[in-house]
Amino acid sequence: VAVTASCVRSVHGDPMNGILNIRDLTREHQQEEQRSTFISVISHELQTPIAIIKGYASTLSRTDARFDAKTIRSRLLAIEDEADRLNKLVGNLLYASRIQANGLQMDITTLDLAHLIRSMVRRLHAKSPDVQVTLAIPPQLPVVMADRERIEEVLQNLLDNAVKYSPRRPEITVACYSTGEEVIVSVSDVGMGIALREQQQIFDRFHRVGEPLSQATPGAGLGLYICRAIVEAHGGRIWVESTLRQGSTFSFSLPREEKAPLPMVVF
Ligand code: ADP
């Protein structure tokens, strides 16, 4: 807290009254802390890909450089990967600031989750054949009311994280089941896991787990924040169950078709 005291005096200069001002600075300190976390996360996330792109581009463009076709291709692919990483970062920053400023505009329609999950897993297989994915989807899954594009974003973030935070060959299980009122989707991995004390904070903006292995993995701590905003805008919940060095299960729920709110703009 900040405390200031002042004295009210009469025209003759005699003290008449005292004013004590006590200001709670917790919020200001939190905002200041968030600002400095933002600057350090973003500058690190910008610097690394820029350094890689610049390094590769300048060696490839040297007039005396003699590289074989395989080396040239692998460096160009690395440049492309880093440009994608920058693109994703900028996209997530814009997304997060839109959430803060005006909430999310939703385009709610009926959604066949089983179909969406299968097509996303097929895409993941095509891109990363070494990732092992097991699907556990019952045959009669009820339809949900949801914004397809945004739920795809949530699933993509959870799948990307399951791969990113698995130091060995990623083994992922995507399960989907229905309770009385909701449909629940979960993405499990057998990766590095998350300590109990960090499990609530990882859904906050810019929060990244302090473990060295996690810090060494690229990321700006925005993906789960965006996932939570999307799921909550659908009237659902998102949560994690995890054991350090054993793996994590991220789950989210969506209301079933007949229970879902009418299409709306959520602020
Ligand atoms: P990031 O871009 O840093 O991955 P996220 O918001 O998606 O941002 O995740 C926040 C943090 O939560 C990550 O930095 C990481 O420390 C932790 N995390 C997320 N998913 C997993 C996972 N599947 N396994 C272990 N840690 C995870």
TrEMBL record:
Subcellular location: Membrane
Single Gene Ontology BP annotation: osmosensory signaling via phosphorelay pathway
Membrane topology classification: Multi-pass membrane protein
EC number(s) reported in the record: 2.7.13.3
Sequence ranges assigned to domain Histidine kinase in this UniProt record: 41-258
Source organism superkingdom: Bacteria
Reactions that this protein is recorded to catalyse: ATP + protein L-histidine = ADP + protein N-phospho-L-histidine
Name used for this protein in its record: histidine kinase
Species per Swiss-Prot/TrEMBL record: Dictyobacter arantiisoli
Lineage, top ranks: Bacteria, Bacillati, Chloroflexota, Ktedonobacteria, Ktedonobacterales
Residues of the full protein shown: 261 to 527 of 527
